[in-house]
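Proteins fold reproducibly. Take a sample protein:
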Amino acid sequence: MADSLFFTVLQVLAILTAVALFVSPLPDLRRIHMTKVIGEVSVLPLLSMWGCASIWVIYGFMTSSVFPVVVTNAIGMFCALSYIVVYWRHTTEKKYVMKLFTFVGFGLACITLYAVLAASGVTNQTNKQAGKIIGFVADAVNIILYASPFETMKKIVQTKNSSSLPISFCFVTMINCTLWVLYGIIDNDMFVLTPNALGFVFSVIQVTLYVKYKSSASQVQIENEARRVSIDIVTPKENDSFAYFKTKSPTLEPSPTTLAPVSAV
């Protein structure tokens, strides 16, 4: 009974942390919706979220893991599609976005067709056997997504500045991967366990880099503040021979987006 309760609590926590990851792009997309300007936000992480979540939904159905795998990633699919619609409405590169969307959609259609044929007995495979093949595909996609921040991590080591790392996102990813690793161990599901074990390692590395180079990032910010210049503008008043008021020149500084490839399983 205690083991069953623990497993249920673990599943619920895994879903909650996954949902936290799925809603992480929301501030960027809300800004896009309000300003109608895409800025530096890329559509690739959104398409990756949609594709990855969709594959895991198919895997969950084939392996009868409706809760939590299907439930979790169905939420991810809905979020990703909503984000993509908002992005597409305001982007100036609609043809490019539609081309990528079609490419990902075609891949998902092929996987879905294979799953339907397998479930219908056309491929002479059981659902479990077909689920294994789909699981390999899902793992490959997940591993690619988890490894994608390597370029950013390399830049952090070179510059000794971790300000570009979305630490909250990295920390939630680490917790999420931990929960799914535990789920994979208890449920004896290596397809869930493997990519999340790697995701845990990658997220730990990112958190470690943030902690190690945090002071350097703060120093860079202090130096940037020190470089700000005030301009004194002296203007005559009607009753004064000389009077002045002081205004500060505007300072434009880049602000990194927190949008990153998201995978919840």
